[in-house]
């Protein structure tokens, strides 16, 4: 019996599997975008349709890297980065009405004791943003559970670090201030990605 029918069945199954994974990743990305949209609505943070589309791309990029990266260290870095994108920006906006910037990150490390001592006075403002960030991180991490893909790709790991390298090089050669003080219309992931690479 010719093996061709089995090859065709395998290819068809693999194609449908890839389509399913792609749709799941897009769905999760849209959920995270809706979550950011709701956060912006409740805290009156402006955003344009162009920035929403741009943010969807950033979310989809990182969640895809997380789902298909071969090395565990890459996935840990990506999910930690995403959680900080949400938590740092959510908390900072709730308290100071702006996204966190490079100077804020620097001062939080330099004046760690002062930041730690100030935490109790900000619990009432920070509690909801923290819970919101944890929910977003859980949605992000669910990609590892619902994307049934045994194959992992080194290309995803390389793509992630290449993206970091490109932004790092661009930040050295640019005089734009967006890396220091990101605009509020930028999405949380985009603004924090530019910030962390530069920082």
Overall body shape: globular
**Rg over CA atoms:** 19 Å
Content of β-strand: under 5%
Tell me roughly what share of residues is in helical segments. Answer: over 70%
Query: What is the number of strand segments?
Result: 0
The main β sheet shows up as: none
Q: Any descriptors?
A:
199 residues, mainly alpha, 79% helix, globular
Describe this structure in words.
The chain has eight helices and no strands. It is mostly helical and 199 residues long. Helix 1 packs across helix 5 and helix 3 (72-96) crosses helix 8 (188-198). The chain is globular. Residues 4-10 have low confidence and may be disordered.
Helix/strand layout:
Blueprint: H1 4-42, H2 49-68, H3 72-96, H4 102-110, H5 112-141, H6 143-146, H7 154-172, H8 188-198
Helix pairs in contact: 1-2, 1-5, 2-3, 2-7, 3-5, 3-8, 7-8
Give a brief outline of the structure.
The protein contains eight helices and no strands. The protein is mostly helical.
